[in-house]
Design brief:
This protein is α+β, with helices and mostly antiparallel strands. Helix content is about 30%, strand content about 25%. The chain is built from 12 helices and 23 strands. The strands form 5 sheets. Strands 5, 6, 7, 8, 9, 10, 11, 14 and 17 form a 9-stranded antiparallel beta sheet that branches. Helix 4 packs across helix 7 and helix 4 packs across helix 8. The longest helix has 22 residues.
């Protein structure tokens, strides 16, 4: 399928036609935590369909679409490839950055509420876990334009959870301390508020672009154009003129005041723990833009595959490109779901002594979220935890093959990090090494195929 469908609903209709077995529609009425439990149960059974729920309590009849990014195969299809080609396809498409195309109008402007007509308590929001503070928006992409007069800064997209604080205010966390946080600090120094717009429910490739880590002079909307293979159609919001996808389901336009705060959290984060670490920012909403019969594109939080994939696939792709360019021995890179964002596995061809350690150091240095990286030989499937654990069990000698570095900045959402966010990191060399003389057991692929056929027939 092509990636140039204009919005998430058009994409979903087409995808359901082409891959009906990969879309699960649940007609029963569900509560929010039951949706999250359903997604977790699918994962436990090795399934990852897009989940469509027309009847969710508290959503006022709004159809919920979730688990969209839980499948690497589905994300690869978005980019016209298969899982093996995902990193390369993502990087090649992202490199074709394309400026957005400003259009006069679009479906997101079907209904516009401003001023006293704004009532965030009427929004469709979902409580995902019983431990959450309340119902959250989890797929919201905060969009900001480049600050005027500041060289080297472009517009920015970034994900931030949001909780309704009042009829016109959202409590949110800029816990990533990324570019949006830096721009907010610039606004604070000038004694200004920061105009922003929160986009909820755009084309899946826009959603993927929003999680990319790029330099501050690169606008992720141009990255979305590269992934889409065509310019992203955008309209300007009515109050602050922020460029948002014309086909978005919902947009909340307003300002973040650096001087204001509101309690936010706990919330089920990617670590698998309920986190109340938050910057407690307040987004005051001036305008609500919404499509007629808008759907709610949701991301189940916690350590769900969807939540992790959104962030890790752009990171994996970037890291894989850097590693392979610098170290030709590297053949594969994978961030496992079991390690949330804190583990990575790297496969490499046999190299000179010390090369595996150098590759481990590079990856631990380039990605500030990583705490543990395991190097394995290229005949180990890095997408399978059991194979990596087998390599650790049979190849690694802890006294010689493990090293640690401490006192480095890490993720503020790592529950084991120090109060100031520092952490230690570890590299494990589970390659066989130059003097390893055991021979791996081998089974002819034809015999494996025969065994599968026998079992499939029963």
């Amino acid at each position: 399928m092509t990636a140039t469908d204009p919005g998430v609903r058009a994409w979903l209709r087409r995808y359901a036609t082409e891959h009906p077995d990969d879309v699960l529609t649940v007609g029963d009425e569900l509560e929010g935590p039951e949706v999250a439990a359903l997604v977790a149960e699918l994962a436990a059974r090795g399934r990852a369909e897009v989940v469509v729920c027309p009847h969710v309590k508290g959503l006022g009849g709004t159809t919920l679409v979730t688990n969209l990014f839980a499948s690497r195969r589905r994300i690869a299809r978005l980019l016209g490839t298969d899982p093996a080609g995902l990193h390369r396809a993502y990087q090649q498409a992202a490199a074709r950055r394309t400026e957005p195309r400003l259009v006069a109008t679009g479906p997101v402007l079907d209904t516009v509420a401003e001023g006293d007509d704004v009532d965030l308590t009427a929004l469709p929001l979902l409580r995902h876990f019983d431990s959450d503070r309340g119902p959250y928006l989890t797929s919201g992409v905060i969009t900001a334009e480049a600050p005027q007069g500041v060289p080297g800064r472009a517009g920015n997209l970034s994900y931030h959870r949001a909780l309704v604080h009042s009829r016109t205010e959202l409590a949110t966390s800029l816990h990533s301390r990324g570019h949006l946080w830096q721009v907010l600090r610039m606004a604070e120094e000038r004694g200004e508020v920061l105009p922003v717009a929160m986009v909820v429910g755009a084309h899946p490739l826009f959603q993927l672009a929003a999680s990319a880590r790029v330099a501050p002079d690169i606008d992720e909307r141009t990255l979305a154009g590269g992934l889409l293979g065509a310019p992203l159609d955008v309209v300007r919001t009515p109050r602050h003129g922020i460029r948002v996808p014309a086909q978005a389901e919902l947009v909340l336009e307003g300002v973040i005041d650096p001087a204001r705060s509101a309690p936010e959290g706990p919330f089920g984060e990617f670590s698998g723990y309920s986190s109340d670490r938050s910057t407690n920012n307040v987004l005051t909403v001036h305008s609500v833009l919404r499509r007629r019969d808008a759907v709610l594109l949701d991301v189940v939080g916690g350590n769900s595959a969807e939540h992790l994939n959104l962030a890790r696939i752009p990171r994996e792709s970037e890291m894989a490109e850097q590693l392979m360019a610098r170290f030709p021995e590297v053949t594969a890179l994978h961030y496992p779901t079991s390690g949330t964002h804190f583990h990575a596995y790297v496969a490499l061809r046999r190299a000179r002594p010390g090369q595996a350690r150098q590759i481990l150091l590079a990856l631990l240095g380039w990605d500030p979220y990583l705490k543990t990286v395991v190097a394995v030989d290229d005949d180990v499937d890095v997408t399978r935890d059991d194979e990596v654990l087998w390599a650790l069990a049979t190849h690694l000698q802890p006294h010689a093959d493990v090293f640690m570095v401490d006192g480095l900045p890490g993720s503020p959402l790592d529950p084991s990090a120090t109060p100031d966010g520092t952490t230690s990191r570890m590299g494990l060399d589970a390659t066989r090494g130059p003097h390893f003389d055991a021979v791996r057991i081998r089974t002819d692929p034809a015999r494996t195929a025969r065994a599968r056929a026998l079992l499939d027939a029963r």
